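Anyone have tokens for Single-stranded DNA-binding protein? Sequence:
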Amino acid sequence: MNALRNSVRLLGNLGEDPKVKRLESGKVVANFNIATNEIYRDSNGNKQTETTWHRLVAWGKNAEVAEKYLKKGKEIAIEGKLTNRQWEDKNGEKQYMTEVVVNSLLMLDKASN
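Reply: yep, here.
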């Protein structure tokens, strides 16, 4: 079996416009969130929707595409890998974050005229 060991595919809607930065090194990075929904029936047969938020980071061309075309509410599909970051906040407490580094990005909304 020759499968990727750290691969994530998500289909969801943007919760906000991407936040894009240009670093001193010249690299471009975009940070944004998407919501994915799972729809199921509870034990009483009622339809339920559970929303999960995912933090995404895109670099280079993907960041430039995100900056130019992605807006809050747009539906996208991404493929990427999970990463974990940690840092100390101003109080000396360790903080942790899991995010998806975007390898490919597909816009699913129709282009607006």
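Strands lie at 8-14, 19-22, 28-41, 47-59, 75-88, 94-107.
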